[in-house]
Amino acid sequence: MKIIKSLLTAFAIAFTNQVSGQQTDKIETDWQNSIVLLDITRKNHNFRIPWDKRAQSVSKFGVVIKDKELITTATGLANHTLIRIQKGGRGKWTNGKVNWIDYQANLAVLGVESDDFWKDLKPVKFAESKKLKKNLQVIRWRGGNIEKRAAEFSRFTVADANFNQAPRIELKASSEIEGAGQAELMVSGDKVIGLVASKISGTCSVIPAPFITDVIRLRESNNYNGLGYFDFIWQPASNPAVTDYFKLEGEPRGVLVIKPGEKSPLKLHDIILEVDGFPIDIQGDYLDPDFGHVIMEYLACRHKWAGDIVNFKIWRDGKIKEIEFKLPKADFSDNLVTDRPNDVEPTYLIVGGLVFVPLSAEFLSSWGGDWQRSAPFRLVFYNNQKANKDQKSLVVLSLVLPDFYNIGYQQRSSQNIVIEKANGKLIASLDDLAQAIKSPKDGFHIFEFKKGSTLKKIILNAEKLDEANQRITKRYGIPKLQKLK
Amino acid sequence: MGRSVVQVMVYSQTPIWDAPWRNNSVGGSSGSGFVIEGNRVMTNAHVVGWAKQIVLRRFQDPRPWLAKVEHISHECDLAVLKVETPGFFDGLDSLTIGELPKVQSPVITCGYPSGGEQISYTRGVVSRIEMQNYVHIGNKAFLSVQTDAAINPGNSGGPVFQDDKVVGVAFMGIPGLENTGFFIPPSVIRHFLEDIEDGKYHGFPKAGVRIVSLQNPAYRKFLGLPPTGDGARIDSLADYTEKDGILKTDDVILEVGGHRVGSDGTILLKGNRVYCTAAFQEPQDGGMLKLKIWRDRKEIDVSVPMKVRKEEENTGNLYDALPRYYVYAGLVFTPLTLDYVKTFGRNWRSVANLEMIYELYYRKNEKPETARKEPVVLAATLAHPVNADIRLASRAMIDKINGKRIESLEDLIEALEKNEKKQHLIKFGSGTIESLNAEEANNAHKDILETYSIPSDRRL
User: Fold this and answer.
1) Could you tell me which residues come within 8 angstroms of residue A289 by beta carbon, excluding any fewer than 6 positions away?
2) Which residue of A188, A287, B69, B250 lies most exposed, with the fewest beta carbons within 10 A?
3) How far apart are the C-alpha atoms of B302 and B256, rounded to whole Å?
4) Out of A238, A411, A413, closest to residue B389 by CB
5) Catalytic member of B77, B195, B339, B399
6) Rounded distance, CA A175 to CA A139, Å?
């Protein structure tokens, strides 16, 4: 009897395997009609040689959603000049265009004019929040065939953007797939789990499906306002002596605000106890019904968008208080180090071989992903400092194109220094600088740099500036002396 | 000559900067030295820094001779030793210090380099003479002579000869460069010897000015000078120089200490063009330096009182003075110094938080009004139930304690000891707050010192 039973079991297992194997094959066939190859040509700017444009080719993937549109990640689409789309992994390429893009959300919707293109293509279905963890696979076109590689769910995390506080929910999964991060599909069964935004060593960072479907839905109804964020900085309240100090009654819980934002009603040393009804623990995490324990920053984007209200329960002045927090838009273009993650061309102003550029996230990023360590320290440190009324942004003398006109200023000490004044006027933007250059002082242009700079002052001959500009642009093959907008 | 060259055998012990009551294990090393007038031995500061025992060996003499440091300059890497065992100088001639040798002229180095036991001589020429960063202190440049005569570990402190006179003290090489050794020239040696004549070492005074070239014709015209010609420009002033009010930005230095200054900021020193800071280092502490300056379109004579400045001390390597610290309830506080941040490892610049680097190197130049006399860090937390809940346990700058802004270690001790509230509140540079129950902390204090074998809760 025992023997028969175990035999039956073995048979049943074998049978099940066969069935599921067949299903998998069928699903693979289906993905062929939903995932397309994108070939993007873009202008790759070098923010340290701002007039230099290099064409760059980016290969990535897109996936068909309803209403004859594709969705992909925004990465690689900035400053594009041509988008070519190929379906079926081989054959003809068709021109595409960007219908909608949001760099903070890292998503873009693409369209194709010709109706023929959409024949045989089939929109995908996105997975629900609760079904994002099992049987994961990464799917992409590879050499004319669909390649699929197993992936294993690891965790959900909330990551900040490179420069600013804009939070993003990410699904982390490990996979052996090589060179992923170009919006490959992560799928489970016949549902899309998300788009692979990047991959570092063995771990894929995936924009999860619930976020994508939210964005698609809002965009369709013209209600997409962009990401919001919490503009304050907090510390865990894990030291009971600290919560005691603020006379918090009951068990230690919540987090302590140590730098209130300019746009929020939270104050220094408020203890945040709950956000949208979720209790915040002493680490700053809460228990998300879909994603488990995640950091409270996610509550700024959990089905919430810029302009939406998030409810805070806080401890302030020995009392519990409820406050409404209107989420500010994740727009950091007014930071002291400006951050505009969109289709920006580098701006610059060349004065007698002195190349001035705005101190921007793009400029600092030109030192690479490790810019916080590899870019000049003083410039990096401005990212910790706040803009103010007189100094909304900064302008850097980034390089000197050698010419006898600027002799004496060609050393390294006159590179990457931040300007304070030109011809006596405070400088916060290239426009300010362009204006100041119009009024030389007694035949001289006088540039003063911030206190503590490796060079404090530069003086140029105003009368000979035009002549020098012409000579320098010609010698260095620079098409235009300035690009201010 | 070789008879007067001695081997300096040293056992030394350096402190652990993030556990300042502890020391690293004792290490042995050796260098060279030579006899100078007054029954003294000259060697490098880095040979005898942190020394616990110094033993000298004479030329072909097996006997050990006990010595001690009489004066030491970690800035210019020189030291003078006294010999405690009598009879050491019998039969030894003192060597005389010569003049700066000429480029291309032959020199002989002499000492006890690694690779053998006996005295060793190498011959070379003077390759060039320039201002060089002295690596022992790390943040100061002095005149230095480069030679292709081999200078190897163990040569340090040994004399460099020309015509029977000492024209330098061998002191460093640069890793990766071949056939380049450096020696300390006579002017720096003499400065040190004159400095200690009154029985005390003062140091090299500093003018606190940044001098830049003045080669742009427009800038020269702006200042009323001909398009080409002499003179270098003062681009910025240290806070203390600005307060003195004697030198001003845009002053053009035409002459310093009798040396004409070129538009690239160099002076002609015995046939060599070297950066003019060499001339600023000639006076002793409290001496005057005569400058010819172009200011407001006029040539004027200015005398600048020269003073030794300690403001930048924490950005250089520190020696021989054990680190200051205070341990309270297991929290280890110590001043922010280069030596401390170096405990983070070779890549300390990447590890240290940005505020710490800004505080150490930038704040006193950019915002002197907000700079602290002695920034203090929480270096470590010695685990104990009383401090177990403190998350930010190390490598953090201290801003305020119990409401008091911390300008020095003494401030910090006062803020903790005089607190009458139930709790101590520590605010860090990042804005983070930590707290300790004052009564529990006081009770645990002694216990923690015993557990971790800390002889005293403070060294000031």
Assistant:
1) none
2) A287
3) 10
4) A238
5) B77
6) 11
> At the topology level of CATH, where does A35-118 sit?
Thrombin, subunit H (2.40.10)
User: For chain A, what are the domain ranges?
Assistant: 35-118, 136-220, 233-326, 348-483
Q: A136-220 with A348-483: one CATH topology? A: no
Decide if A244 touches B, using CB distance below 8 A: yes
Run of H or E residues at A204 = strand A203-208
Q: Is the Cβ–Cβ distance between A419 and A446 less than 8 Å?
A: no
Q: Write down the H helix ranges in A264-391.
A: 361-365, 371-374, 377-381
Distance CA B227, CA B220 (A): 6
How far B444 CA sits from the closest chain A CA (Å)? 15
SS3 assignment, position B420: coil
Q: How far apart are the first and last CA of chain B?
A: 45
Domain A348-483 falls under CATH 3.20.190.20? yes
Share of chain A above pLDDT 70, in %: 93
Tens of pLDDT along B169-183?
999 888 888 889 999
- CATH 2.40.10.10 for domain A136-220, yes or no, is yes
Residues of A in contact with B212 (CB under 8 A): 413, 455
Task: Locate B114 and state its tokens.
Answer: 């690694």
**Total-model pTM:** 0.89
- What residues contact B369, with CB distance under 8 A and at least 6 apart? none
Establish if A119 touches chain B: CB-CB under 8 angstroms: no
Q: Tell me if residue B456 is catalytic.
A: no
Q: How far apart are CA B407 and CA A351, in angstroms?
A: 44
Chain B residues interacting with chain A (CB cutoff of 8 angstroms): 210, 212-219, 221-222, 235-236, 249-250, 349-350, 354-355, 357-358, 361-362, 365-367, 389-391, 423, 425, 430-437
Distances (CA, A) of A483 to A258, B300, B371, B392: 40, 46, 39, 46
CA atoms within 13 A on the CB side of B432: 18
**CA B237 vs CA A54, A188, A455, B284, B316: distances in Å:** 43, 66, 11, 21, 20
First and final CA of chain A: distance in angstroms?
84
Q: Which two three-digit tokens encode residue B201?
A: 């070492």
Q: How far is CA A484 from CA A348, A353, A434, in A?
A: 6, 16, 9
Q: Is B156 a catalytic residue?
A: yes
Q: What phi and psi values does residue B348 have, to the nearest 5 degrees? A: -55, -30
CATH of A233-326, one of 2.30.42.10, 3.40.50.11590, 1.10.357.10, 2.60.34.30: 2.30.42.10
Note the pLDDT tens digit of each residue in A282-338.
Answer: 999 999 998 899 999 999 988 999 999 999 999 999 999 999 999 998 888 888 998
Q: Which of B216, B249, B358 sits opposite A456 (nearest CB)?
A: B249
Q: Is the ipTM of this complex over 0.90?
A: yes
